[in-house]
Amino acid sequence: MTWRPRWARNWPSVKYCSDRCRRHPPGPVDAAAEQAIRDLLAVRARDASICPGEAARLLATRLGSADWRAVMPTVRAAANRLVAAGAIVMTQQGHVVEPSVAQGPVRLRLPR
């Protein structure tokens, strides 16, 4: 979610970044994607990271699908929500980045 100055007046009440997000709140598949990320990070070393593709493969398996690429946007959105909540951080080339500016390959890890 990208910060908008008008949110400063009522930040505690901001729940959605846009009307599109308001119309399509996270559902069960989105929750499963977040859980897949958490599960993978839970079995790794505290400072290890995962690729979102690993979470997409796990989620596709849990959903009974062989096409992990189809769920990749769902995993990326789940990662963005977890970053916004402070549960994980997103990195590129070892540096923490904001999801709104990250382009290309990213890694996900627990905050230090």
Enter the CATH topology name. Answer: Arc Repressor Mutant, subunit A
Which regions are unreliable across 5 or more consecutive residues at pLDDT < 50? none
Mean pLDDT: 88
The global form is globular
Query: What helical percentage do the residues reach?
Result: 40-55%
Radius of gyration from the alpha-carbon trace, in angstroms: 15 Å
Largest sheet: 4 strands, antiparallel
- Strand-residue fraction? 5-15%
Query: Going across the major beta sheet, what is the strand order?
Result: 1-4-2-3
Proper CATH architecture: Orthogonal Bundle
Structural class: alpha+beta
SSE string: HHEHHEEE
What's the CATH superfamily, by name?
Winged helix-like DNA-binding domain superfamily/Winged helix DNA-binding domain
By CATH reckoning, the class would read Mainly Alpha
The total tally of domains equals 1
Query: How many helices?
Result: 4
Quantity of strands, as a count: 4
Distance between the termini: 21 Å
Key traits:
112 residues; four-stranded antiparallel beta sheet; 4 helices; Arc Repressor Mutant, subunit A; alpha+beta
Descriptive report:
- With 112 residues, the chain is α+β, with helices and mostly antiparallel strands.
- The chain has one domain (26-109): Orthogonal Bundle (Arc Repressor Mutant, subunit A), CATH 1.10.10.10.
- It is built from 4 helices and 4 strands, in the order H-H-E-H-H-E-E-E.
What's the SSE blueprint?
Layout lengths: L18 H5 L4 H15 L6 E2 L1 H11 L9 H14 L3 E4 L2 E3 L9 E3 L3
Antiparallel strand pairs: 1-4, 2-3, 2-4
Helix pairs in contact: 2-3, 2-4, 3-4
Give the structure's gist in a few sentences.
It contains 4 helices and 4 strands.
